[in-house]
Amino acid sequence: MTDRHERLQRLAARRFRLAVALTVAMIAVYFGFILSIAFNKELMGTLLRPGLSVGILLGALVIVASWVLTWIYVRWTNTHYDHQIRELSQ
């Protein structure tokens, strides 16, 4: 196996680990929210302010978390992965 091939395999393994970690994080956030709705309705219905409940706030935070996790992946890909792929393809 050549050095280039080994570096490409290591890079692919890092990308896979990052993708799995971010996927697990998103699943935990999403299912945590869903399970909170299912098993703790009283908490989710608690009003923080008129028109804003804990459930609505956490739902918005689930959306924000998905954006943040996507940003982390895109940032890593643009700064590390794409750069190393370009180096390996030369």
Feature tags:
single chain, 90 residues, mainly alpha, two-stranded antiparallel sheet, 2 strands, 86% helix, 6% strand
Task: Please explain how this structure is put together.
By secondary structure, the chain is mainly α. It has one domain (3-89). Helix content is 86%, strand content 6%. It is built from three helices and two strands, in the order ααββα. It has helices at 3-39, 41-44, 54-89, and strands at residues 47-49, 52-53. A two-stranded antiparallel ribbon has the order 1-2. Helix 1 (3-39) runs antiparallel to helix 3 (54-89). The longest helix is centred in the first third of the chain and has 37 residues, at 3-39. The two termini are 18 Å apart.
Number of domains: 1
Provide mean pLDDT, rounded. 94
Helix proportion: over 70%
Shape: elongated
Return Rg in Å.
20 Å
Strand order of the largest sheet: 1-2
Instruction: Give unreliable regions as ranges.
Output: none
Helical segment tally?
Answer: 3
The secondary-structure class comes to: mainly alpha
Instruction: Profile the largest sheet.
Output: 2 strands, antiparallel
Q: Strand tally, please?
A: 2
Distance between the termini: 18 Å
Tell me the fraction of residues in β-strands, as a range: 5-15%
Element string (H = helix, E = strand): HHEEH
